Amino acid sequence: MKLDEFFVTGEPMIYAADAAIAMTVIGIVFVLTYFKKWKWLWTEWLTTVDHKRLGVMYILSAVLMLFRGGIDGIMMRMQLAFPGMNILDEHHYNGVFTAHGVIMILFMAMPFIIGLMNVIVPLQIGARDVAYPFLNAISFWTFFMGAMLFNLSFVIGGAPDAGWTSYFPLAGKEFSEGIGNNFYAVSLQIAGAGTLMTGINFFVTILKMRAPGMTMMKMPMFTWSIFITSIIIIFAFPVLTVALALMTLDRVFGTAFFTMANGGLPMMWANLFWIWGHPEVYIVILPVFGVFSEVISTHSRKNLFGYKAMVVSMVGIAFLSYLVWVHHFFTMGNSPSVNSFFSITTMLIAVPTGVKIFNWLFTMYKGRIKFTTAMLWSLAFIPNFVIGGVTGVMLAMASADYQYHNSYFLIAHFHYVLISGTVFGCFAGLYFWYPKIFGHTLNEKLGKISFWIFVVGFNVCFFPQFFLGLDGMTRRMQTYADNLGWNGLNLVSTIGAFLMGLGFFVLVINLLYSAWKNKRDTANDPWDGRTLEWWTKSPVQAYNFAVIPHVKEMDAFWHMKKRNETEIKAEDLKPIHLPSNSGVPFISGIFWFIGGFGLVFEWMPMAIFGLAGIFACMLARSFDYDPGFYVKVDEIKKVEGITGGDK
Fold it and tell me: Residue 25, class by beta-carbon neighbours within 10 Å (0-12 exposed, 13-18 middle, 19+ buried)?
């Protein structure tokens, strides 16, 4: 391969990205060297198996990917702000909207949610760690290396450009000869392996690591949402793994699973993708339903209304999520009976979701509501998500879908569901649990400014797109003529996108300002919380709980406070076992990246070297007999501020 084929050239924005990557790397190396932080980085972060630190790294990765995916979205809106624009040519535009979808769903929403679950779930169930700490670190580094490999495609080799769904035959070598779609197949495979391991880990953690007395029906709703999500992950992600493996075989090794020229079945890819893809929507929605349940209950100062109904509705959503995928094919020539069945199942899934909406409303009824930033995000979710849900029912009508399908109406619906659901929920969770993670709250004034700018911008951006879709504007359109009547609505939509970007910018300012200015003596329980995570120190100590709690009822910490049972007694303390840090997950992640890079470029020696390195890491782990270490009682007393009771 020639050098000019290896590096992407020819566009000013690509050169700007090259410069930004180079300057960022140089800046990071300079700061770590100047402040002598290399050893700190290795011992505290790169080798950690602490679920809380891994959660922080997931969230930081997600915020970076939100910035990257947001820039892609703004570039698309700039291209469409006026007719006949040429900010992005056809090829670059295809790459940008492909990256936007993949990054926002798989590399922003997923890690943000997994980050929150890593930090909070073990604390909510009264556990000292997850079931498999080492596997948890492997999960993060495989996700991270997959994300980095995908992002590298824009400056090295060429970006994938067949859409985030990467439909065949367009995604095959027949119509996409470059290596861009190899990046899609390999990087998603690597990142997806990490997500699957996370699902298994948290399924076992919630089943086996709960505190004494915490039955399933005493679990916090966020933990319930993660438990159901983990089950969906375990069943859905192997389908994606198989589909991507077959795609890789087609593109790299010349097989014909999906390739038309040799008798392959392009429609099989679409089925496999959406058998994973539609449960994936609920993988990123159900956890934020848990977040909203915790925030609304805490800030209404009431227990959650209809707890059992909420649990049953989540189970119903999980079951129905596997029976709706064909609604993506209503216009592809199915029989009326097939379309009718999947139309009914798609409409049915609105029922358990509606149950949740009413439960949250009844929870707030006669509550003493505190309007913090986290609560504002939760309140804004309800009307905006209802718009997404109602338009979803419209799309579920197979006959009407012939009008809506592939139009901007669908784009608007999709974003009303995923932004008002997932993104609002991630922001609510960030503001709600931030003091537990970092030991100080975020600035509420800046938080509310960011909230209002973002929410107004969101509606200004996406509400006009319903009308654009009804007026005939199709998605993936790179430009349009001046006489179609779309000019004004597209300009308004672009203004809304910039407002959302401004809202995100204020959020970043808030993160930096609060880290610099806000006091570090935040109370462990700033919101008068109801669940066990608020019993721990802020930020949470390595061992989570000095004494494992005994749970007697739901909202355990709320009742512990009422009974004055929150004090830790010195005589109850015992040495606490914790796992040792390990560099193997990080090194294994590097080998995943090397092997993936070799496979993308079809350099088999490099791919084999990466695979050998992965197996070497597995072998090293097999002969690792480190039993971990114990935190001594004296150290626990010092951390907890306990005196007396010396043994």
Answer: exposed
- Cβ–Cβ under 8 Å, residues 585 and 138: yes
**Residue indicated by tokens 């915490």:** 214
Give pLDDT, residue 645.
58
Longest dimension (CA), the chain: 85
Look at residue 2 and give its three-state secondary structure: coil
Pair 128, 576: CB distance under 8 Å: yes
Tokens 């970043």 correspond to what residue?
508
In degrees and rounded to multiples of 5, residue 540 shows phi and psi of: -70, 135
Contact 90, 143 (CB under 8 A): no
Structural domain spans, the chain: 1-34, 35-581+625-638
If you average pLDDT over residues 350-356, what whole number do you get? 93
Q: Using the predicted structure, report yes or no on whether residue 280 has a pLDDT greater than 80.
A: yes
Pair of tokens at residue 242: 């198989």
Model confidence, pTM: 0.96
Tell me: pLDDT of 582 over 80.
Answer: yes
Residues sharing a CB contact under 8 Å with residue 216, sequence separation 6 or more, in sequence order: none
| C-alpha span between 244 and 203 (Å, rounded) | 24
Residue type, 611: L
In which residue are the tokens 């509400």 written?
463
In this prediction, residue 647 has a pLDDT band, given cuts at 50, 70 and 90, of very low
Quick: pLDDT tens for 402-419: 999 999 999 999 999 999
Rounded distance between C-alpha atoms, residue 98 and residue 92, angstroms: 10
How is residue 388 written in tokens? Answer: 């997404």
- Residue ranges of alpha helices (H) inside 518-632 are 556-562, 584-600, 604-622
pLDDT at position 6 is 82
* Consecutive H or E run containing 459: helix 444-470
The dihedral of CA 197, 202, 207, 209: what is its sign?
Answer: positive
To 10 degrees, what angle do helices 221-253 and 110-124 make? Answer: 140
Q: How many Å apart are CA 101 and CA 83, to the nearest integer?
A: 23
* Domain 35-581+625-638 fold: Cytochrome C Oxidase; Chain A (1.20.210)
Residue 32: φ, ψ to 5°: -65, -35
Sign, CA dihedral 318-319-322-326, equals negative
Reported as a pLDDT band with limits 50, 70 and 90, residue 4 is low
- Confidence tier at 85 by pLDDT (50, 70, 90): very high
Q: Could you give the 3-state DSSP secondary structure of residue 394?
A: helix
Please tell me which residue, 417 or 14, carries the higher pLDDT value.
417
How would DSSP label each residue in 500-522?
A: HHHHHHHHHHHHHHHHHHS-S--
- pLDDT tens digits for range 542-558: 999 999 999 999 999 99
Structure tokens at 144: 């991270």
Mean pLDDT of the chain: 93
Would you say how long the chain is, in residues?
A: 647
